[in-house]
Amino acid sequence: RLKIASQASAVCGDAVVWKPSEKTPLTALACEAIFKRAAERFGDAPEGLTSVLIGDRAVGEILVDHPKVPLVSATGSTRMGRDVGPRLAKRFARAVLELGGNNAGIVCPTADLDMALRAIAFGAMGTAGQRCTTLRRLFVHESIYDAFVPRLKKAYESVSVGNPLETSALVGPLIDKAAFDSMQNALKEAAAHDGRVTGGTRVDNGHPDAYYVRPALVEMPK
Fold first, then answer.
1. CB contact at 8 A, 54 and 25
2. Catalytic sites, residue numbers
3. What b/e string do you get for 50-81 counting C-beta neighbours within 10 Å, with b at 16 or more?
4. Which of 57, 76, 110, 152 is the most exposed place for a label (fewest CB within 10 A)?
5. Residue 176 and residue 122 in one domain
6. Are 137 and 59 contained in the same domain?
7. Rounded to an integer, what distance in angstroms lies between the CA atom of residue 117 and that of residue 112?
8. Does residue 135 belong to any structural domain of this protein?
9. 94 and 108 share a domain?
10. pLDDT of amino acid 65
11. What is the per-residue pLDDT for 182?
């Protein structure tokens, strides 16, 4: 998302400094290389139109507080937004904050259930649920619940989990142990509130430092 925003800024004639998550530096560098190749083919793009800074929170704070950065577009948690927003406001800088996605879907009685199943499965399980547009909540009309939810469970139980470089794998790993622990804590909390959990167990692929996990579906009481 941030790379799209940076390209839009470049079209408007603004230089961009892009600081990606410290957990995904290679993705940022690859996107930057693609952009630079496109700029070279264009033939008239100024030097330094975009730059990538690799680093941790301290690097991000420098950008947020720097007087020569008039606008900051940040994607992350609501906790991050509560920290970044006031700091930008203090120096009258502009902020574009995309925080804490909690996307929902609704399945109505008139829905095409085959299409809904495919859309929900991809929306919830694609990229192992690690994107801001991931489907996290689903509301299914009671008249079709018993016909639809078992099919969705079957999809969750049968989806292939493994190395994303293999064509047979549809769900790759979580980014790190912290993400795995956060998922497990959320499932425990749901179960403590009488939620019925399907999936969510770790998949052993022979690499103890890789966190492959079967997607989880939680049915919450009314």
1. yes
2. 98, 132
3. bebeeeeeeebeebbeeeeeeebbbbbeeebb
4. 110
5. yes
6. no
7. 9
8. yes
9. no
10. 96
11. 95
Interacting residues of 186 by C-beta distance below 8 A, sequence separation 6+: none
Residue 99 CB neighbour total at 10 angstroms: 16
Largest CA-CA distance found in the chain, in angstroms, rounded: 61
Same structural domain, 77 and 126: no
Joined together, the tokens standing for residue 140 give: 């299914």
State the residue range of the domain holding 27: 6-98
**Token reading at 103:** 């996307």
**pLDDT confidence tier of residue 2, bands split at 50, 70 and 90:** low
Domain CATH for 40: 3.40.605.10
How far apart, in whole angstroms, are the C-alpha atoms of residue 83 and residue 64?
Answer: 10
State pLDDT tens for residues 7-31: 677 778 788 898 999 998 998 899 8
CA distance 26 to 35: 14
The dihedrals phi and psi of 150, each to the nearest 5 degrees, come to -60, -35
Instruction: State the pTM of this model.
Output: 0.81
3 state SS of 52: strand
The identity of residue 89, as a single letter, is A
Instruction: Find out whether 18 and 3 touch, Cβ atoms under 8 Å.
Output: yes
- Output the domain CATH number for residue 204: 3.40.309.10
Q: d(Cα 78, Cα 80) in Å, to the nearest integer?
A: 5
